[in-house]
Amino acid sequence: MNAEKLKKISKRMSYILRHQPDSVGLTLSPGGWVAVEDLLAALKISREQLNEVVVTNDKQRFEYSEDASQIRARQGHSTLVDLQYEAATPPNLLFRGTATRFLHSIFEKGLIKGNRHHVHLSIDRETMIAVGSRHGKPVVLEVNAKQMVNDGSQFYVTGNHVWLTDHVPPQYLREFP
């Protein structure tokens, strides 16, 4: 399948599995799962095409259940769903990419989840530069995750190594040099 077709299917899957499953008559079960067969029917694609999208997705957004009968988006949901991730201890420092034009607001309010379930963080600074570049001149913020945990915050980690938390108050942030 060509790259354009892969991207189109991936974007449609993200929309369905993260935001509007009901747009194609699906309902997310606990954990955010849907039956693979139901998604295939909704998207009108083959299992081979679905596998190619899952395997080649640059951010590894999707995952199969252990028996490969169900599929879900790993994070980024705006629809109400309990992803059932268990709390995990993050590394001492995590990173978030953003654009410089958002810094004033971030240092005033912290990192907020907006209409998503969590704030997304990473251990990979380079990836965060790319994330920040999507919205303007990029900057990477360092998150003192160790202190957040010590102060009672909870973190979760997904299968593609994205760290999730509810909010990062400004006192745990600094601009990465």
UniProtKB/TrEMBL annotation:
One of its GO terms (molecular function) is NAD+ poly-ADP-ribosyltransferase activity. GO terms for biological process: tRNA splicing, via endonucleolytic cleavage and ligation. It holds the Pfam family PTS_2-RNA. Gene3D superfamilies: 3.20.170.30, RNA 2'-phosphotransferase, Tpt1/KptA family, N-terminal domain. InterPro entries: Ptrans_KptA/Tpt1 (IPR002745), RNA_2'-PTrans_C (IPR042081), RNA_2'-PTrans_KptA (IPR022928), RNA_2'-PTrans_N (IPR042080). SUPFAM superfamilies: ADP-ribosylation (SSF56399). Keywords: NAD, Transferase. The keyword Transferase applies. Its EC number is 2.7.1.-. Coiled coil: none annotated. Removes the 2'-phosphate from RNA via an intermediate in which the phosphate is ADP-ribosylated by NAD followed by a presumed transesterification to release the RNA and generate ADP-ribose 1''-2''-cyclic phosphate (APPR>P). May function as an ADP-ribosylase. Belongs to the KptA/TPT1 family. This is Probable RNA 2'-phosphotransferase.
